[in-house]
Specification:
β3 (about 95-100) and β4 form a beta hairpin. Helices cover about 30% and strands about 20% of the residues. The longest helix has 28 residues, at about 45-75. By secondary structure, it is of the alpha+beta class.
């Protein structure tokens, strides 16, 4: 899969950088299907580190596509989410969870 690398001058393109919430320089962000994927890249600024990062992102995308295809073929729907909730056997219809709070009935 080809990977494009771009550069934006935030002085010349301040509106774009504001929309993308670029607050520090340099910011390295992975985009997939025209959407930024957070968190931004924070590791070493070497060619090897960039290559490893890109390969991990591409592998994760392929694993997701494989999982999605298998789920569609099986007719099963799965939902994965990460919440700050105590372990519970099942979430009931009247249970409320949010990423920043605990689950509660």
């Amino acid at each position: 899969m080809p990977i494009g690398v771009g550069q934006v001058d935030c002085v010349e393109n301040s509106k774009l950088c504001q929309e993308q919430k670029i607050a520090a320089f340099p910011t390295i962000r992975w985009f997939q299907e025209a959407k930024g994927v957070l968190p931004d890249y924070k590791s070493d600024r070497t060619v090897n580190a960039f290559n490893s990062f890109a390969n991990r992102k591409l592998e994760a995308t392929e694993r997701y596509k494989d999982w999605q295809t298998k789920s569609e073929k099986s007719g099963k729907v799965s939902l994965l989410a990460s919440y700050n909730c105590a372990p519970r056997p099942l979430l009931t219809n009247n249970m409320v969870c949010s990423p920043r709070t605990h689950c509660r009935n």
